[in-house]
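haha ok so turns out i had the wrong file open the whole time. this is the CORRECT one, sorry everyone. sequence first:
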Amino acid sequence: MRNYNLLVTILLALNFASCGVSQKDKEGFFSFDENSMKPLYQANEKVEITLLNQKNKTIDSIIYFANDTKVSAVKGNSKFTLDLAGKKLGYQNIKALVYFEGDTISIKTRVEVASGIVPKLMKYTVVNSYPHDIDAFTEGFEFYRDTLIESTGQNGKSYFAKIDYKTGKAYKKVALDQQYFGEGITVVNNKIYQLTWQNGEGFIYDANTLKKIKSFPYDKKVEGWGMTNDGKNIYHSDGTEKIWTMNPETQKLEDFVNVYTNDSKIKSVNELEWINGKIYGNIWQKDAIAVINPKTGAVEAVLDLSALRAKVTNKEAEVLNGIAYNKETNTIFVTGKNWNKTFEIKVTE
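then structure:
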C-alpha cells in the first residue's frame, strides 16, 4: 500500500509539473520583433520577420501563415521574408506556429499593406451643365441605354426614377416604403438592383417597366452605399474602404478589395461607376473621385472636382455624389446631394 501511495504521489507531482506553465505564460516565450517592422508597407515591398525568443528556448521549427494560408516553414529561429507582391491590400494577419522543446505555441501580429502606385491627377473639361432637382438626395446615378436613372435617399423620401437629364425632371418614378433609406443602383441583364442603407435589404426591378421583381437580404452585416457593374458582376460599397463583388444571380457578396492609395486607406467609398475597366468612386465628404483598380483596390488616379462644387449655387447642396458614364458620348455626368446642377465632363490625363 505504501508503494502504491508513493506511485500516486509521484504521478500527481509529474502531472502538476507538466501543467505548471500556463498557455498564457507560454505565449510570453516568443513575440514578433515589432521594432523591425514598419506601420505601413507598400504592395511592392517585402517584410523581414524575426521572432524574439525571450526565454532562450530551443526552437525546432516555425511555420508562418498569412491570412491563414501557409506561406513558409523555417528551421530553428531563422528569419522569414514575406513578399507582399500579389497580396491583398489592407491588413495581412501573420501567424507563427512555433515548435520548441516538445511543445507548440501560436503567436500573431499583422501588417498593413498600401498600394505601390502613386495616384495621377487627372484633368477634365466641362462639356455642358444641366438642371438637377435640388430635392434629390442623390445616392445612385447611372445610364441605362440612353436613359439616366437616379436613386435618392432619406427615410420617407427615397425613390428612384428615370430622368430627362437635359431638364432634370423625372418622368417615371418609384417610391420606396417609408422605412427604407434608398442607396445605390445599377442595371444588369435588364434588371435594376437597388440597395438600402441600414435596412440590410435590397430590391430588384424590371428595368423597362420598373415593377419590383423581388427583395433580397444582405448575406453579410454591411451597410448599402454605392453600386456599379462590369456587365457580369456587381460592385457594392459599404461605407468603409471595402468594395464587395456581388453575384447578381444569387445576390451573395463573394469577395472584396480594400481601397488604398500609396500611403493610406480610403474610407467611406460611396457612389460607384464602371468606366473602361476601372471603378470611379465618390468618397464621402470629398469633392473628388478616386479611379480604382477593381482587381486590387489600388487608387490609380484622382479627379479633383472642387471647382464644380463652387458652381453649385443653392445653399442646401451637400457632398459630391453621383457618377454616370455615357458610352455614346464618352462623357461623365456628375452631380451631388441636393445640387441644383448636373455637369457633363470629359476626362483626360
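The chain has a mean pLDDT of 90.
again sry for the mixup
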